[in-house]
Amino acid sequence: MNNARKTWIRTTAAAALLYLISTGGAWAADAICKGMGKQVIDSDLRFSLSHSQIPGELAISTHKMRVAGTQYKLESNSQAKGFLALLYSGQLTQKSEGLVDAQLGLTPFYYAEQRGKKPVAESMLNAETQQIVFKRNGESAPYEKGLQDRISMIYQISARLRCNANLKAGDTLAMRVMSTGRVGNEVFVLKKMEDLTLDLGKGDRRVSTLQFETKPEEAGDEIVRIWYAKDLNWQPAKIEIRDAEGKALTQTLIGEGT
Prior knowledge:
- This protein has a 15-stranded mixed beta sheet.
- Mean pLDDT is 85; it is low at 6-11 and 13-31.
- It is 15% helix and 50% strand.
- It has 3 helices and 15 strands.
- By secondary structure, it is of the alpha+beta class.
């Protein structure tokens, strides 16, 4: 990491922390969950990636979370093979960096995606103007408390469940989420409790999960489903992205570590 990037991260982190302290608040949907920041933990997870219309394993995805003091770094990397490698030139990377706040949990101020050899698409907080700047299209949007990104939202729910998993079917967790071009709404609905069988490298293991599903804002929006495993400290055990035509890309947990 170059010196300019390091300076930007230190400056933005300090300014964002002061902003959060001055404004206070917590998740709008959670008035009783305390100590969210303590529930954000280091982790290394490996997933097998598959597609509903393509046989076999298409990639291995790794998710790495690192927490140091009040800051975190989260990276997802999928090294594709076969058909998916032709689409993405072999690799898809997502990065999220930001603060770990005692009440808000993950508070990202930098998000990036890169598909193969394409340029990195970045979104970042301008701490002085309190705007999210989308480098891809040059547009911006006001920063909002509790804002997540496309990868941090997965682990924000993990932290929420570690803090308080007293939920029932039909309960919702709403968040504002930034991509590389806009800020939108994601409303996760707890659909059901479900047992999954996972192969974590030591034979099949049955785990109890809570399955969440997003409510699409508009017709044609993709649906995200995530299964969180109670027996695995509420880590995501399965992540599915389904498009309007019913085609699904699924990550299934196969182990911890690299």
